[in-house]
Amino acid sequence: VTSKLPVVITGLGAFGGFGAGVEALAHAALQGAGTFGLRDVDGLQQGIPCSASDTPSVQDVFSAVGTRSEEMSRRFGRLMASAPKDIRAAVQVGLEAWTVAGLWDAPPARTSVVVSGSNLSQARTAALAIKRHARKSRVRPRWALQFLDTCAVGFLSEVLGITGEGWTAGAASASGNLALLQAARHIADGYADRVLVIGALTELSALELEALDTLGALVDGRQGGDPAQACRPFDRHRIGFVPAEIAAAIVLERADVAAARGARPLARWLGGAMRLDGTHLPRPSEAGEACVMRAALEDAGLSAAAVDLVSAHATASQLGDEAEAAAIAAVFGAHRPWVQAPKGLLGHGLCSAGVIEAVLSVQQLDHSVIYKNHNLTTPIRDDLRFVGAISSPNTSLRTIMSNSFGFGGINTAVLLGRAGE
Amino acid sequence: MSREEILEVVRESLLEILYDIDPQRVTMDVSMKSLGANSLDRSEVSLDSMERLGLDFPARELGGLPNIGALVEVFYQKMQA
Q1: Contact B51 A78 (CB under 8 A)
Q2: In chain B, is it the N or the C terminus that has fewer CB atoms within a 10 Å radius of its CB?
Q3: Whole-angstrom distance, CA of residue A266 vs CA of residue A194
Q4: Backbone angles phi, psi at B11, to 5 degrees
Q5: ipTM (interface pTM)
Q6: Is the dihedral of CA A33, A391, A401, A27 positive or negative?
Q7: Considering only CB atoms, which chain A residues are within 8 Å of B20?
Q8: Which residues of A touch B19 (CB under 8 A)?
């Protein structure tokens, strides 16, 4: 561990139902302003709670870059005009993180980009198939580029001038954490000085929603009520996961390179791990989750007692939350770090979940605050120290573990630390 | 439908993609390429126009046309058929 090059976080970006930008995200986290609505899907339960986001306009995409926005609109406006929602959101958060990190003069060949997620065009695929089946529309050649997830990588490379390596990282709902982990290893191994990690916005079509609904994983909205209260991670009355259209970005950078250019580190990358459970099923494993949390601690060279807060995967699914709560209790025992479930605030960003939740963790470390848990009124068990219903300053917050688990026995955990320790 | 009316349909389709150009520049004797449209843009304009005109034929028949007038002529002939 000690032989690896230290890595820090120097840039953040966020986009979702809460608005555009990390400040909008922090505001939502503090205020708990509901960003949820209801979606009707023909043939399914009416009014599925979800957190949708609007397609950013071409101007919105470039608004994060301040005085450069007009020039960038002129250069890349046509490019973005033909880009779908998920790619516009990816570029928007990428530009925000780039600007926060102050990277406009960074050497392009020493920078890489990774987009977390796979099957990023499901909603568009379904819509095109319906139109084509009805013979209402010929498929555009642009689709030959856009059906590939790496299309987003190309857009980011083109707009930001990145010429290092670029790829997508697929690990179901753990894609975001996998992307962060690969990015940190890529830098620590010397292949690049920095990596822009993008958590891709996941837009589900009726096909995925119906399958997830029948599987019993999707939120059961039949009882109605306020959609902002539908996502209840770690609560006894949880009713399934609430999908959220969220994009997020994080710049990971070699600590010495960031310091040399005078960049302010927002947090430190401490380590992380990924482990498989030996299954292709959506079958959460307490043992597998405990194993990956311990492996992440080992990678970071930390004991369980060093962790102040666990930002849990906790989707509000019946079995998943139970397994994770038990795994956290097993790993941390009497130490009892704070346990937080960011999906109560955000919903489940799916491909982007690990990245947006890492953004929240970095903000908490940077601002010495612990954001409240949303919709957790009757906790699943009483031996975990769940964060309460009020956000509060916490100057002793130094280390956060952020979990992400995915269908198919995919377990990941990453560790982030306060800057300047 | 006259050739001028078809040109208007092509112009509308083109301005949805090249939204920042002067509509007056979209004339029969210019090429979409010279207006800044790449091959994906050109194909999209052709297919959009085709659908607006109620036509449906494989897009490969539209390859290699020298200018917007030639595209309009193909559409005009298809509409007479």
Answers
A1: no
A2: C
A3: 14
A4: -60, -45
A5: 0.84
A6: positive
A7: 74, 77-78
A8: 77-78, 81
pTM of structure:
0.95
Instruction: Quote the DSSP letter at residue A281.
Output: S
Which residues sit opposite A309 in a β-bridge?
Answer: A338, A400
pLDDT per position as a tens digit, A163-217: 999 999 999 999 999 999 999 999 999 999 999 999 999 999 999 999 999 999 9
Query: Do A172 and A408 meet the contact criterion of CB atoms below 8 Å apart?
Result: yes
For residue A194, list its beta bridge partners. Answer: A111, A253
B residues 62-81 closer than 8 Å to A (CB): none
**Maximum separation of any 2 CA atoms in chain A, in Å:** 63
A81 to chain B, any CB pair closer than 8 A? The answer is: yes
Judged by CB atoms closer than 8 Å, whether chains meet at B56 and A138 is answered as: yes
Token output for A11:
């840039």
Q: Are A244 and A261 in contact (CB under 8 A)?
A: no
User: Is the Cβ pair A78, B40 closer than 8 Å?
Assistant: no
- Neighbour-count burial of B15, counting CB atoms closer than 10 A to its CB (0-12 exposed, 13-18 middle, 19+ buried): middle
